[in-house]
Amino acid sequence: MPAVPCKTGCGKNAMLKRPKTGDALCKECFFWAFETEIHFTITKGELFKPGDSVAVAASGGKDSTVLAHVLKTLNNRYNYGLDLMLLSIDEGITGYRDDSLETVKRNRDDYEMNLKILSYKDLYGWTMDEIVAQIGRKNNCTFCGVFRRQALDRGAAMLNVKCIATGHNADDIAETVLMNVLRGDIARLKRCTAITTGSEGTIPRVKPLKYTYEKEIVMYAHYKKLVYFSTECVFAPNAYRGHARALLKDLEKIRPSCIMDIIYSGETLSVKEEVSMPTLRVCSRCKFVSSQEVCKACVLLEGLNKGLPKLGIGKSSKAKKMLEEYNAKQKAEIDKLNYEFKKNNCVSKGKICKSKCNNVSNGKNDECNDNNCKCSTELNLPVNPKINKLLEEYGLLDDNQEQSLNQDLTKNGNSGLEENTCAGACGGIDGFSIAF
Amino acid sequence: MTTLKIQLQFGGGAELLFDKIKKREVELPSLKKYFPESQKEKWTIKELLVWMKDNLLMERPELFVQGDSVRPGILVLINDADWELYGELSYEVQENDVIMFISTLHGG
């Protein structure tokens, strides 16, 4: 078969057919078109301001690796004046994240950017391996997604950056639009195509690769010989999303423009005014943005720490029932303890009789006083000093707020799964493509 | 009829389906021997995929092939160029060709 000349007329042979435009281009012309389109997306969307510090959310995968490379390239070429750094989250998944973090460290060296790695273990007291040991492999992705979203925010706050750039590509966004349609999640459908997300008081997230096809990202990485990590997460993938993904890939094969068309549909659709939207507010515990009184991350964490790992999974009515059962059980325990206490101690004049106490203790604790006795009636939860320190640090005081949580959950009928998709208001922008 | 020597390469996670080996030299038998019924004289990518499925792909073939082509989302490069420029399945494989399969479906 004869070689196809590059569509630009540069005289070289074409190396790939662009899915977005159908143009056959040589490597150099492809690099130019690829990078220039991203530059246009950045400038048209006003993603950055000169002098901004930007954290690139880096997983070591193809998208974030290409994103870091292209941002560095464009920052130099067009004098964006950005201070770029890498931010990685270590979920604690053996055989997956530990390996991919090695790739991120290589990115750090190759692109000469600072790297910050935050772990779930440090932030939440649990690794994903430990969470999976509790919850099994069915709902673990909910934990991972919710925790990652918040972990990135915390990391960005620590780095004191203006915004977080994520590697979501056009195929990802189209897939998310499709998923939100399939789940009837109107609130997310409305905002998932926004190029900049984040409400007041949060660090905005931007998606410079929003209009960049996955195929082009992979071809770019291949031709530029960028090193990236491509092992699938060791835990079971989301089957529903997998089907949506397969459908999209099948459609893309027949008509590549469907990716851009789905994004366009997402950007331009309008939601009837009478459809009620969850209002964003601040989580009463951790002070991070939430659509509920208590954010999903806090509910999930509470579930883990109370030995009710399924607490944050599924409908809030279920969570409420679980907490009620848990509280009833705790109350029964407390009643029992109180009963035992009364049986073994005589209480006179509001003070505990010391002599009686000495009888039950084996001489060791002869200073049984009010405080000690009170202790025995408190909830006996497993305590991890590290978690407590962090909870305190983040204002996540775990002082038996079941009661208030119950009320909150009742108030907010829908559970609003906070996935690691996108949030914020929709700001539709037309895609830009270079055709010849 | 002689055999045909080519190199196969795998990347982007596609190698995970092929014993994690990223590069391998293979020698294809004569097409007439492997497909006695075939009307064709030369190996094309279409027959190559069948041969790979029979000889190299040990488990979960549905992650690599779909129908008589590769699963959508797996890129095919012929001597480092996009197979979409070279007729995809109908490309006639030449001696010493390097055929590469890159998955876009893994990780992000």
TrEMBL record, chain A:
Instruction: Give the signal peptide range.
Output: none
From which domain of life does this come? Eukaryota
Which InterPro entries does the annotation name? CTU1-like_ATP-bd, CTU1_C, Ncs6/Tuc1/Ctu1, Rossmann-like_a/b/a_fold, TilS/TtcA_N, UPF0021_CS
Stored PROSITE patterns: UPF0021
Q: Give the protein's function.
A: Plays a central role in 2-thiolation of mcm(5)S(2)U at tRNA wobble positions of tRNA(Lys), tRNA(Glu) and tRNA(Gln). Directly binds tRNAs and probably acts by catalyzing adenylation of tRNAs, an intermediate required for 2-thiolation. It is unclear whether it acts as a sulfurtransferase that transfers sulfur from thiocarboxylated URM1 onto the uridine of tRNAs at wobble position.
What family name appears in the similarity comment? Belongs to the TtcA family. CTU1/NCS6/ATPBD3 subfamily.
Name of the protein described by the UniProt record: Cytoplasmic tRNA 2-thiolation protein 1
Species this protein is from: Pieris macdunnoughi
Automatic annotation (TrEMBL), chain B:
* tRNA processing keyword on record: yes
Keyword field contains Cytoplasm: yes
GO CC aspect terms: cytosol
Primary subcellular site in the record, as a coarse category: cytoplasm
Question: Keywords in UniProt for this one?
Answer: Cytoplasm, Isopeptide bond, tRNA processing, Ubl conjugation pathway
GO biological-process terms attached to the record: protein urmylation; tRNA thio-modification; tRNA wobble uridine modification
| Transmembrane annotation, as ranges | none
Cellular localisation: Cytoplasm
- Post-translational modification remark: C-terminal thiocarboxylation occurs in 2 steps, it is first acyl-adenylated (-COAMP) via the hesA/moeB/thiF part of the MOCS3/UBA4 homolog, then thiocarboxylated (-COSH) via the rhodanese domain of the MOCS3/UBA4 homolog.
**Pathway the protein acts in:** tRNA modification; 5-methoxycarbonylmethyl-2-thiouridine-tRNA biosynthesis
**HAMAP family per UniProt:** Urm1
| Family the entry assigns | Belongs to the URM1 family.
Name the job this protein performs: Acts as a sulfur carrier required for 2-thiolation of mcm(5)S(2)U at tRNA wobble positions of cytosolic tRNA(Lys), tRNA(Glu) and tRNA(Gln). Serves as sulfur donor in tRNA 2-thiolation reaction by being thiocarboxylated (-COSH) at its C-terminus by the MOCS3/UBA4 homolog. The sulfur is then transferred to tRNA to form 2-thiolation of mcm(5)S(2)U. Also acts as a ubiquitin-like protein (UBL) that is covalently conjugated via an isopeptide bond to lysine residues of target proteins.
- List the protein's name: Ubiquitin-related modifier 1 homolog
